[in-house]
Specification:
The protein contains 19 helices and 18 strands. The chain is an alpha/beta fold. The chain has three domains: 54 residues, no CATH class; 230 residues, Endonuclease Chain A (Endonuclease, Chain A); 164 residues, Endonuclease, Chain A (2-Layer Sandwich), CATH 3.30.870. The strands form two sheets. It has a 16-stranded mixed sheet that branches. Strands 8-14 form a two-stranded parallel ribbon. A hairpin with a 3-residue loop joins strand 15 and strand 16. Helix 2 crosses helix 3, helix 5 runs antiparallel to helix 12 and helix 6 runs parallel beside helix 7. It is globular and about 75 Å long.
């Protein structure tokens, strides 16, 4: 036998050995759709499948990041163990009480009270609100966004940060390394931040020369700001103009339509706890909880006062708190459910919960963009429309070229949630997210009023219209659905 034959035999044996190994290891702690997608890629296209799996096959962070998150959860649980499960004066159903208990067990954050101070659907108004709060800051400003860019729209926020530093306010800024990397003027922006005295750091940096490497699609997708521990913002806006720095978007009129919320009260400390954990993870600097986690006066839910629970999630949370919360809220609904998500690629449990709700007579509405800005996710999302329509889900298509980017839901008139998390595989397991669940006050009504605004401009997708789609579009949708499960 020649050396060529020996080499060929050895490579074949190695390939089959690796395939056998993959069959027994890939499904471990992974949802069935993801396991099937990875195994198909590995078994049929091993030259692509094996390298891809070694590069991005593990959806969880390990090492120090995993330990920091575990320690933070334990610390928060100990610090808040004396707080009641339900805030005083809040009235909840047994089902909602169980969701609150689950959220607390998974994240360490209790259900407290807070005041809903307004929703921002207009990007310029949102940036002005951020700037106004920074201008009023006396001690510190904590800013964390997936995308940060300095442009004509965000300049007022940057100017407010620089002015705050000049008057002695500490400004800390976290921005995702890859999320912010591709936008114009990045280097100049970072230099200006440094020169202006803003303490900034990249989140999830990828720098192999400094031994900083991780799965590149594990990102920090959170969007939040805290001022003096008294005011916070959460939602879907990034810190960038609503055209995302693109002249092409400007020409065709493509803008991102977001929704964010301003809040005060005890819930601000929960948002702050998320920032402190992320800051420590990226900087190794532990900010004093006694200074930054300050209790606010207790409120009785009603009017603008709500019971609120912050639910962080991401690669540091293998239990996927956001997915479990979404699924539980859908399962307990008896009258109506409304979901708004730019990228709707649910896992099996959430899809079953949504379609089951529709089958049992719950009015389920889904608000999505008529045309997605991401090719793969957009087509993967479309692959779910038939199952949803057949179950009776009402799908509202927000007209293109606008990209509907808000991320929120309501269940009955009882509970709502708003934040940074999409309803897709990436937000469930690959990206750090923050959601705020609220009930007992005005939040649900305000979110439902935003639904009314979306209905006036959207059109309803019918099953007849969907059946008229050409076969090759359905084929493309299903292929993209398979790739969306590769996590």
């Amino acid at each position: 036998m020649t050396w060529v034959s020996l080499l060929t035999t050895g490579l074949i044996a190695l390939e089959y050995g690796l395939k056998v190994y993959a069959v027994g290891t890939v499904p471990e702690n992974r949802r069935p759709a993801s396991s099937s997608a990875w195994l198909l890629l590995i078994l049929f296209v091993p030259v692509v499948g094996f390298p891809a799996y070694w590069l991005i096959g593990s959806p969880w962070v390990h090492g120090r990041r995993h330990l920091v998150q575990a320690e933070a959860n334990a610390l928060l649980a100990r610090a808040t163990e004396s707080l009641p499960q339900i805030p005083y004066g809040a009235v909840v159903s047994p089902g909602l009480a169980s969701v609150i208990t689950m959220n607390r067990r998974l994240t360490g954050l209790p259900c407290v009270t807070g005041t809903e101070e307004g929703l921002y659907g207009d990007t310029d108004e949102f940036f002005q609100a951020l700037a106004d709060e920074i201008d009023a800051a006396q001690h510190y400003v904590h800013v964390e966004f997936y995308i940060v860019a300095r442009d004509a729209s965000t300049e007022r926020v940057f100017a407010a940060m620089f002015a705050a530093v000049q008057r002695g306010v500490t400004v800390r800024l976290l921005l995702d390394h890859l999320g912010s990397r591709k936008y114009p003027g990045r280097r100049q922006m970072l230099k200006a931040l440094t020169d202006g005295g803003v303490q900034w750091h990249h989140m999830m940096p990828i720098d192999p020369l400094r031994r900083r490497w991780r799965r590149p699609d594990l990102r920090n997708h959170r969007k939040l700001m805290v001022v003096d521990g008294e005011v916070a913002f959460v939602g879907s806006h990034n810190l960038i103009a609503d055209t995302y720095g693109s002249a092409a978007n400007e020409r065709v009129g493509r803008r991102w339509k977001d929704l964010s919320m301003r809040l005060t009260g005890d819930a601000v400390a929960s948002v702050q706890a998320v920032f402190l954990t992320d800051w420590y993870t990226e900087t190794h600097e532990l900010l004093d909880p006694a200074t930054y986690l300050v209790d606010q006066p207790d409120l009785v839910p009603g009017g603008s006062a709500n019971a609120m629970q912050v639910v962080p999630s991401g690669p540091g949370f293998p239990t996927e708190p956001n997915l479990r919360m979404f699924t539980a809220l859908v399962n307990q609904a008896v009258e109506r459910i409304s979901i708004t998500s730019p990228y709707f690629v649910p896992d099996e449990a959430l899809l079953a919960a949504i379609t089951s709700a529709a089958y049992r007579g719950v009015r389920v509405e889904l608000f999505v963009g008529e045309r997605a800005d991401q090719f793969l996710v957009g087509h993967a999302q479309r692959s779910y429309y038939r199952a949803l329509l057949e179950a009776g889900v009402v799908i509202h298509l927000y007209p293109a070229p606008t990209v509907l980017h808000g991320k929120y839901m309501t269940a009955d008139d009882a509970v709502g949630a708003i934040g940074s998390s999409n309803m897709d595989f990436r937000s469930f397991g690959l990206t750090y997210e923050i959601m705020l669940m609220g009930f007992g006050g005005s939040l649900v009504e305000r979110l439902q009023a935003n639904d009314d605004e979306y209905r006036t401009v959207s059109r309803v997708l019918t099953l007849e219209e969907w059946d008229a789609q050409p076969w090759y579009m359905r084929y493309l949708d299903n292929v993209c659905r398979l790739t969306a499960a590769l996590m």
